[in-house]
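Model it.
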Amino acid sequence: MLYNSNSCDTKEGEITTVKGTKYRVTPTFFSYQLPPKLKFLSIADQKVYIPLVDNRYGITSKNSLTHVHIQGNLIYDIQHFSGLWRLEYLDLSNNFCFNITKQSFQGMGNLLFLNLSRNLLGKELKRQSGEHVFDHLRGLKVLDLSFNWITYLHKDIFIFASNIEHLNLSNNDLESVTFDLSGALKLRSIDLSSNKILILDSKSMDFLDASREKQLFIQMSSNPFQCTCQSREFLKWMKDSLNKHFVDKENYTCMFTDRKRIHLRNLDKILSSLELECASFTTTIVIVTIILLVTIILISFAIMYRYRWKLRYLYYAGKRSYSGYSRIFDSGREYQFDAFISYAESERAEFIPNLLKLERENNFKFCRYSRDFIIGVNVAENITNAIHNSKGTVCFLSKAFLESEFCIYEAQMARMESIYRGGETSLRIILADKDFGDVLPKFLKDIIIEQTYLEYDKDIQEEFWIALTQGLKDMTTTIVIVTIILLVTIILISFAIMYRYRWKLRYLYYAGKRSYRGYSRVLDSGREYQFDAFISYAESERTEFIPNLLKLERENNFKFCIHSRDFIIGVNVAENITNAIHNSKRTVCFLSKAFLQSEFCTYEAQMARMESIYRGGETTLNNILVDKDLGAVLPQFLKDVIREQIYLE
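Modeled.
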């Protein structure tokens, strides 16, 4: 028996059977009694509307239905059909349906054909990717999911498909084959035409490469294929596949890097061209890489030699910090020693007695290697630690001093310590000899030229030791003053930088928070962006722009991010804005006086500007001037954007 509702007189909210019995649709439960021998039921194109509530759809168990046509209605929500255990053919296409669950097809184990095309299931299939929506349809042979705005399908969504023969995924937004078809050994054809596939990676090709009983027909026309070095393996796979036939392959096109598009009629010629191009490209990369490596190595050695003393200082400073040598600091003072004394061992008897006298009379504490170095520690490390733990270093410069490798090392480390204390002058030079000739190292010449030094005169020693005592006392005062100035300068500069880059810092904060908390998961795994554009507008102008934007979405297959619809509930508004802009190809700002009066609108524009900068200068902020006379209220950064870019009015 065949029942077609087109031949019946139906009223809104009623369904009439061939017996003339009428059933009114209620918002809680549907139960229909059909003729027990009825096999074919059609209520196609009747604009039947079912409310979005937790309904159950029931047909009495005593039925023989095998074919049901419900296409062209307004069935937004498919939750469950009961009593359709004999059903073999179900057409639910063109219903504006956006919700299905695993229970939607429960009890339909005999279903062979399911048409869900021309619905809005893309978002739901992505959201329920791990729930095996079609798991009850083990016997299904034909599944049509075309025209559903699908951007991503979970790897295991077709785990049920051991008997599937024909799969239609055409006219969606897929960019790769992320779903596993290795278990679909009876698959005869798959339609991936009119998607957004640039190339198939090795994993996608593996999913289609399972050994099947019969040849697999693959339709991939009207995809924006690329002919680049990265797509060579994909094109080779297309050419050499023995158990797969690419339908209408001669009309496929791909685009070269120069944006020239060519048909794939002669894949051999295209592959040969790519081999030559990529081979020369590979050779160039290898040569450039070798040159870069050699250059980097040479520059590294030059830098290491140029800064060998600084590197040695950093090495021992780091080792000191790691090994815990900072424990030799007294808890109540900044340094352990007032000065580290550097002198030639042969001149020990000339200087040490007077230095000991200075210690006693002025309450100084000098570091002398013969008395204060730690036994068992490397000499160079002892020197670095001693200089680091002293307020300053005093070098008795003489010819004997310059002949000692350790004395030169002590002078170099003292110079490095001065640099890493922010330029603080902690190295005091005493010229014990006057005529050094050309033996004086350049760094010591520079210090002598730039700084005041003392000259040691054996004939007037008392005056010299008084001057040295005063210099050591002044060293403490200098350290305190320099430290305070440096701290105040750093604080002022930090506040100035934070204010100057306050928008960039806020962007970086939320970008880092997004990365840490995993908000990047809102991106489709097979595509770069979730939205075509983030729409920024004043809330008071919502009714003026949103209806037209929604119309643009429908007519042009766009996907906009609108805060009232797409923001994640429970997430900070500023964080939602940053995530939305990051996951959109671009941002469109409707600039008006109301826009500029909104703190959030200004924040959205600033974050869009930051996103452009961090995409390498890519133009992602587009402005639309709603009001012409914005005058002085327009922020400087928006004036710059409008001056540099083309805008709409």
